Structure formats: C-alpha cells, structure tokens
Amino acid sequence: MAATLCAAAPLSSVRSRAPCHSAAAAVPRHPARPAAWARPAVQRQQRGTAASARRMRVQAAAASTAAEIQELDKEFGIDGCVEVVAGLGGLPTVRLTHACGSSTEVSLFGGCITSWKQASGDEVLYLRPDALQILQSDNPKSKPISGGIPHCFPQFGPGAMQQHGFARNVDWSIATTSADPQPDDRDPEVTLLLEDSEYSRAMWPHKFKVAYSVALHGELLRVDMRVLNTDDKPFEFTMALHTYIEVADVEDAAVRGLKGLEYLDKTVDPANPARKTEEREEVTFSGPTDSVYLKARDHVELDVGTGAAVAITSNHLNDVVVWSPWTAMPDFYKHFVCVENAQFSSPVALAPGEFWRSQCEWAVRDL
Ligand SMILES: O=P(O)(O)OC[C@H]1O[C@@H](O)[C@H](O)[C@@H](O)[C@@H]1O
C-alpha cells in the first residue's frame, strides 16, 4: 500500500484539550563507566566521595522529575482517565485508563508504550528483564527501553546510523490529552511530540516533527503517527513500531496472515538478507527468526498460545517484521515474540511541508 503523503496540516489532535507543552529535549549520551578494576587506584580510593556525590545527583534528579511529573499531571490529567505518573524507572509516564478497566502506559522517554492491560488486568506486552534492570538503575535512560512498543525512527536498520535510529533514545513531550465527552465510555488519548534537536541533527541532518497519538478504545489499543518535514529540503526515512508481545511459550506461538508474502530472512546476514517466499499458513518458531515480510497485508495475528491471539491491523505500514532472538537471549526468549509494523522496504520521501501518516491497532481476541 502506498504511503500517505499530504500537504502540511496541523499536527495536534482535533479534540485537543491543552495547548502544546515544551519541546522535546535531547538526552545526553552517557559514556560507559570503566569497570572498577580498570579505574586508576587514586580514583578508586575516592569512590566513597564520588558515590555520595552521585547519590546526591540522583536524588536531585529524582526530586526535579517528581516536580515535573506533578506539573505535567496538573496540566494534562483528565479525571479518571488520563494521569501523568512516575512510571518505570520513575520516568514521566502517561497512564490512560478506560472505563471498562483496560489501561496503557506511555513513557515520555522514547515515546515507548510500556504496558497495555486488558480489563482483567492481564498484560499483553512484554518488557525484557534486561530493560527492567536498566530502568531500575541510577541511570534509567542510559539505554532505550527494550520492550513494550518502542519506536524505530528515522531508520529501521541496519543503516548509516545506530540500529533503529534515535527516537527511542530521547524524551518526547506531551502535546495534548483528550477524552471523548461520553462520560461512561470515554476513549482516553494522549499525543506526544518529538522534534529535531542538536542530538538528532548530529545523526540525521533534518528538521522534522513527529506527533504520536496513543488511545484506548475499550480494550483496544490504537496509535496514529504523523511525520512532518519542517525543513527546507526533502528527506527520507524508514520506521517501525517494534512491538514486544508476551507469549505463553515461543514454541506454542504462531503468526498468521503472512502466507504467500516475500520476505527478507536476516538471520544469517542482516546486511545481506536472503529473499524467500513464505509458504506457511502459520509461522511458528523453532530457532532464531528475523524476517521482514514485504508488502504485507493490513491484518496479521499472533496466537500467543493461551487460547488467545493479538490481532494487529495497520494502515500505511507496508512491512511486517517477525523477530525472536531464540537462545541469543537464553533467559527470556521463550516469553515473547516481536511482531513489528514497519515502513522499511520503500522508505518514505517527504518534500518540505509534506507529512506522512500511519495507524495501527491491537486487539486481543479469544480463539
Ligand atoms: O533493539 P532491540 O529491542 O534489542 O531489538 C533488536 C532486533 O530488532 C528487530 O526489529 C530486528 O529485526 C533485529 O534484527 C534486531 O536484532
């Protein structure tokens, strides 16, 4: 399906509740700390002082984050359905709650959806334990969140910049929040904003805006992404919604809706993938899997092996990536499969002032 290209139009939600907040700030890069044995002796002797200074810095950062969260909640919270809370890693996070009991959480760090729960309280998404470990450390933003639904933008990868681009490494801001006026059946929604910064332009020399709306419609999770070229020259990008879904056991999981499609098998050499045709009605897992299905249909389904499936419907996202690292992640590969909606095989080209738009929604259905 062809990408949607439109003339510039306002990016904010029509049902906007609050005016645009602050612009996205770049996350400073943190050089890796040398291991204790590699540090000079004198530095090791000063460790106590350095550690308490670091503790004080962490406490000060936590206090300012708490104040920022309170401020954001005052500005963007909507009684009973939209809250800004300290989410994973204490990071500012928007929690949407639907009257039916379903909920979702979106971290401003990376614009990453970190949780989507059904009304029963069952979590649908998967957060890798290694990501949780980083989020629980002193430096929760030292790595992008691996789990939930992170962004790959402006590059899916591999390519010229770091794998999966920079959108998942930086803070997004809240542009608007809204909820339908129907008090018994509100669809809570948040729109996050990402703009170019010194950090992004060092990697990708373009001016842009991304608006990303996340909404709950009953138990269904829905996103809408717009990318606007605010530059005076054209640019191209690729992207993906890198969705991690929890499964009972990867060996009991299956993806349906891919039969007959051509795909790039990246398991051997991601830079030179083998081109194959999918013959299977159900794509099951018995080893490492890293496949990019080209010109995929708008609907695929992941059977999670519990008698339920996650049905994924997308619009203007041409490709579907299916990834399981298998024993490269021995402690937890059994618990998740990534089914990613992507625009990879034909990059989106935007002239100045043009924007591209895509949507995706996820629903759990009983089999
Ligand atoms: O960056 P993450 O979350 O660890 O994901 C990495 C994987 O992401 C997938 O989208 C790619 O197809 C894989 O090739 C890659 O290894």
Automatic annotation (TrEMBL):
Belongs to the glucose-6-phosphate 1-epimerase family. This is glucose-6-phosphate 1-epimerase. Keywords: Isomerase. One of its GO terms (cellular component) is cytoplasm. It comes from the Eukaryota. InterPro entries: Aldose_1/G6P_1-epimerase, G6P_1-epimerase, Gal_mutarotase_sf_dom, GH-type_carb-bd. Gene3D superfamilies: 2.70.98.10. Its EC number is 5.1.3.15. GO terms for biological process: carbohydrate metabolic process. It catalyses: alpha-D-glucose 6-phosphate = beta-D-glucose 6-phosphate. GO terms for molecular function: carbohydrate binding; glucose-6-phosphate 1-epimerase activity. It comes from Micractinium conductrix.
